[in-house]
Amino acid sequence: MKAVLVIDDEPGIQALVAMCLEPLGVPVCLAGSRDEALQVAESQEIGLILLDLALGEEDGLEILPALRAHESLTGVPVVAFSAHDSRRREAMGHGVDSFLGRPFVSTDLYSAVELLFVP
Description:
Largest sheet: 5 strands, parallel
Structural class: alpha/beta
CATH superfamily: Response regulator
CATH topology: Rossmann fold
Strand order of the largest sheet: 2-1-3-6-7
């Protein structure tokens, strides 16, 4: 079964998102950086990427081309999330499939996953 890949450099947010997705019964993989995300993509089939736009030293939109270029991630839908709603337009302009403001409500997360996740 394909998994949801959560890319966020904050372990607490990773755990929260994974916990929120438990009721949906989808496998969740966690990564804190571009390199970790690409390593996960080598070993796990991914059906959706949840991408934080503030990854410490990395910007989520700057790593998006590397994710899209990876052969196993080409065409995988991406949901970007940020505490700064002002980044919504920028993210959509970079080709993300959806955007969630942070903090997000679990029902919004469920809706995005149910709409875009391809098992």
